[in-house]
Design brief:
By secondary structure, this protein is mainly alpha-helical. The chain has a single domain, classed as Orthogonal Bundle (Farnesyl Diphosphate Synthase), CATH 1.10.600. It is 72% helix and 0% strand. α4 packs antiparallel against α6, α4 packs antiparallel against α8 and α8 runs antiparallel to α10. It is an enzyme of class 2 (transferase). It is found in: Membrane. Pfam families: UbiA. It comes from Marinobacterium lacunae.
């Protein structure tokens, strides 16, 4: 199976390595609520399940805009069929997450309804026309909010917390890494995206500038943690030191060929998962 065919298989489209985003962002919100003694266990379980369904849905619809690029090419019928199958599965994930979200809205706050609706709209607009903010070069910026800040804050409120500035500030480091993971995906696929005419941020800015942004996002994560610690919003930074080797590993792939760069995204996904879990310990 060649690289293009493999790209549209269900497992590849599901992108299991990115599940760390959903798990860690939800866990940070849950941990913050637990720390304050307001955690509702059932809601916490529903938040994690809903977060995984949302992440799965976003991943599975990710390639839908490729249909337009593939149409008319020889041998593209099977690829288009696979993309449509994945898209239907992604919509199914959103539908499964909907009743969970409605329960949390009814149990906690109507304000969550607006947050969930915004998150769903953002997920659908990721690759779907006429929005398609992936091809507009906006994905790295928007996932910071949609899959980062909103997930942490939404989880915190859904499991018993009350919206405040502290939880927003505490969501910044992991949100930067969520953007880093998306950027790693663009860096990995730079050549194929460029050849297919996909105007991602990396294609628009150029590979060299995107690499610099990768470094900047990683450094900004560390700086944000230091600021949280100094301001008293992070109990201790020391558990986060364990994540440093996981930060170094993906950097090795930035200056390699397209084929050798394939592990960049899984390595960045591991970083997100490890850092997020350690951040939960650092909050306490």
């Amino acid at each position: 199976m060649n690289t293009i065919q493999n790209k549209y298989t269900f497992l590849h489209a599901l992108r299991p390595f990115s599940f760390g985003v959903a798990v860690t962002t939800c866990l940070i919100g849950i941990t913050a609520a637990w720390q304050e003694g307001v955690l509702i266990p059932l809601n916490a379980l529903l938040v994690v399940i809903g977060g995984l369904l949302l992440q799965s849905g976003v991943n599975l619809i990710n390639d839908y805009s490729d249909i337009e690029l593939l149409s008319g090419e020889e041998g593209s019928a099977c690829l288009i069929a696979a993309i449509r199958r994945n898209f239907r599965a992604g919509i199914g994930c959103f539908l499964l997450a909907t009743p969970l979200g409605l329960y949390l809205v009814a149990d906690r706050s109507m304000a969550l309804l607006g947050l969930f609706a915004l998150g769903l709209a953002g997920a659908l607009g990721y690759t779907l026309n006429p929005v398609n903010y992936k091809s507009r070069g906006l994905a790295v910026v928007l996932v910071f909010w949609l899959m980062g800040v909103f997930m942490v804050v939404g989880s915190y409120v859904a499991v018993g917390g009350v919206l405040n500035r502290a939880i927003i500030a505490q969501s910044i480091p992991i949100s930067l890494l969520v953007s880093l993971l998306l950027l790693s995906n663009e860096l990995r696929d730079y050549e194929s995206d460029r050849d297919q005419g996909l105007k991602t941020l990396t294609v628009r800015a150029g590979f060299t500038q995107a690499k610099r942004l990768y470094w900047l996002l990683m450094a900004s994560t560390l700086i944000a943690c230091l600021v949280l610690w100094v301001s008293g919003l992070l109990a201790t930074p020391w558990p986060l030191l364990i994540s440093l080797p996981f930060m170094i590993r993906p950097l090795r792939y930035l200056n390699t060929s397209a084929e050798q760069r394939r592990p960049l995204t899984p390595a960045t996904g591991q970083l997100v998962m490890v850092f997020g879990l350690l951040f939960c310990f650092a909050l306490n």
